[in-house]
Design a protein that fits this description.
Blueprint: E1 9-12, E2 18-20, H1 43-62, E3 70-74, H2 78-89, E4 94-99, H3 105-111, E5 115-118, H4 126-129, E6 134-139, H5 148-153, E7 155-163, H6 176-182, E8 185-188, H7 194-197
Parallel strand pairs: 3-4, 3-6, 4-5, 6-7, 7-8
Antiparallel strand pairs: 1-2
Helix pairs in contact: 1-2
Length: 198
């Protein structure tokens, strides 16, 4: 992040005035960061794509989602919906939605997921059943007690897990050998660039 970064909301400009972002009638931003919304898209439809949408598009694109890649999306809420849609649009070979329960299975499959894993569902051995089946996982969940080692077991050699959900507390510890044995990468992503939005 830029050291001169001024957040959209509740931040302070260099002149000590406050930024009120999406809660303001007007906002001021450097023109390089302003995106023209195409005429055919209403603000109501564009707004979620400029927030949750780019939050998922960016790590998918930056981490090679596309033909030949098998992608997992952890969390089938608003961010997860975008993850499934964008992974499909980017041409992922297989998209697996991952959630705690089966309650969102039908929604995930309608959005374009090819498979669904319920971590608290019918298969208590889900991490073994689906071991080494994914190239990339994007985690949208904000629960600090997520089964992180289980998610990592789903990755193939040299796979990547990107965390976009922000728990209030630290994530669970990761066993170093879990990463070392398969050459896994773990990273994070917050939002995309103006070029990715365009």
């Amino acid at each position: 992040m830029c050291p001169l970064h001024v957040g959209t909301y509740n931040s302070t400009y260099p002149d000590n005035s406050k930024s009120y972002g999406g809660y303001a009638d007007y906002a001021r931003h450097p023109s390089a960061f302003v995106i023209k919304i195409p005429d055919g898209i209403s603000s109501e439809h564009a707004a979620p794509m400029l927030c949750g949408g780019i939050t998922l598009y960016s790590p998918l694109k930056q981490n090679g989602c596309g033909p030949g890649k098998k992608v997992g999306i952890v969390g089938v809420g608003g961010l997860g919906h975008f993850g499934i849609l964008y992974a499909k649009a980017l041409g992922a070979e297989k998209i697996v939605a991952i959630s705690r329960s089966n309650s969102k299975r039908e929604d995930a499959l309608k959005l374009g997921a090819d498979d669904f894993i319920a971590t608290d569902g019918d298969d208590p051995d889900w991490s073994l059943t689906h071991s080494r089946t994914l190239d990339l996982i994007i985690s949208t969940v904000s629960a600090a007690d997520m089964p992180l080692d289980g998610y990592l077991s789903l990755l193939r050699a040299r796979g990547t897990l990107i965390q976009v959900g922000a728990p209030d507390t630290d994530l669970l510890a990761i066993h170093a050998l879990t990463l070392i044995a398969k050459g896994l990468k773990v990273g994070g992503s917050m939002i995309g660039s103006p070029d990715e939005i365009r």
